[in-house]
Amino acid sequence: MSTLTPTRDVADGAAETPLRRTPSPARHHAGFWFIAFAFLTSMAFCAVPAPLYSLYQARDGFSTFMITVIFAAYAVGVMISLILAGHISDWIGRKKILILSLVLEVIAAVLFIAAPTLEILLLARFISGLGMGMLTATATAHLHDLHRRHRPQASSQRFEIVSTAANIGGLGVGPLVAGILAQFVDEPLRTPYVVFLVLLLLSILAVALAPETVERNVVRPAYRPQFPRANHGDPSRYVAALAAGFASFAVFGVFTSVASAFISGVLNEPSRAVAGLVVFAVFGSAAVAQTLTSRMSLSAKLALGLIAQAIGLITLTVGMHLASMPVFLIAGIVTGIGAGVLFKSAVGTVASQAAPASRGAALAGLFLMSYLGLSLPALGLGVVTQYISSVTAMTWLTGILLVILAGVAGLSRRRATA
């Protein structure tokens, strides 16, 4: 059902349009959950290889460094896409970009299924990254738009919970499903992708059924690549959010790239289901923590995230030195809690202070910096483990991340006392 109401275009330069037919609140409500499903499915798919890397490694005989190169191919695709297309949904429309991104994920899934060789694995991960770069900021902005259209007077609590749960929770669901399938079904390097290919096709249908929230401009703004700029509301708050995103995703990058090899190598645990369960525990704890902290202020979330992530990183390093699976798992959960809450505070800050016409661009900048955090530390681990042990490399990385977290805390404190 639709209603006839005067509306104003969301993007820059839009003009008042009399009696434009707009979807009813009920359609916005349904569309909100359609987009959440597509967001969750896509994020889960992009993390499917996490528990499978050691299987690829055993089959093809490549090193831990090659695992991080494969992971970096995905991250590079994400960052290129964020720079070139992460912001254009503000004037092209959310649905067009989401459908295009999902089509790219479908292509990646077909490549994984057709020929799971090293070369195809690199190509598929890069294509998957291209799709994900378009999707993350666009889906987050679309969820925010649909939430506001359905509940214009409500707080942003539902949006924050669902968007971050779909994003972070999806990264945990993918490895869990893939790990279980790889452990108990035939064709472990193909079957998980077949399952997610079906879900991705359903996601395209879900996006097609959701209402658009960006009206078409008569004159589109001039295109230019999107780089992080501190002109989305309060500059200091935006910079703090970018730093928080980098720090939180650095943890997620470690667990989705080299954790599986560490679990099978140093901890002597060959089960793919266990590897997937560990990654799920990290991201699942992040998603649960985001839900439980929904009523906390942004400053309280930031403080909790910084403290929990710091404690978790230190405990993780201890667990690696002790080669203890229980300590490693507990540390992963604590670190996940901290990173999840920290990232949630960043998303909430950016979405709340960005103007509607530039919300996609602001979120694209946040995700760009976050994916730099996802890729650079993991790639650095892969490089240095060619020369030193993975335990020593992780100890160094922990020290670097603790310095970054201290910097985020210092910037936030200066902002609060300004």
TrEMBL record:
It is found in: Cell membrane. Its main location: membrane. The keyword rRNA processing does not apply. Signal peptide: none annotated. Pfam families: MFS_1. Coiled coil: none annotated. Residues 30-417 form the Major facilitator superfamily (MFS) profile domain. It is a multi-pass membrane protein. Keywords: Cell membrane, Membrane, Transmembrane, Transmembrane helix, Transport. It comes from the Bacteria. The chain crosses the membrane at residues 30-53, 65-85, 97-116, 122-143, 164-185, 191-210, 238-267, 273-290, 302-322, 328-351, 363-388, 394-412. InterPro entries: MFS (IPR011701), MFS_dom (IPR020846), MFS_trans_sf (IPR036259), MFS_Transporters (IPR050171). PANTHER family: MAJOR FACILITATOR SUPERFAMILY MFS_1 (PTHR23517:SF13), RESISTANCE PROTEIN MDTM, PUTATIVE-RELATED-RELATED (PTHR23517). This is MFS family permease.
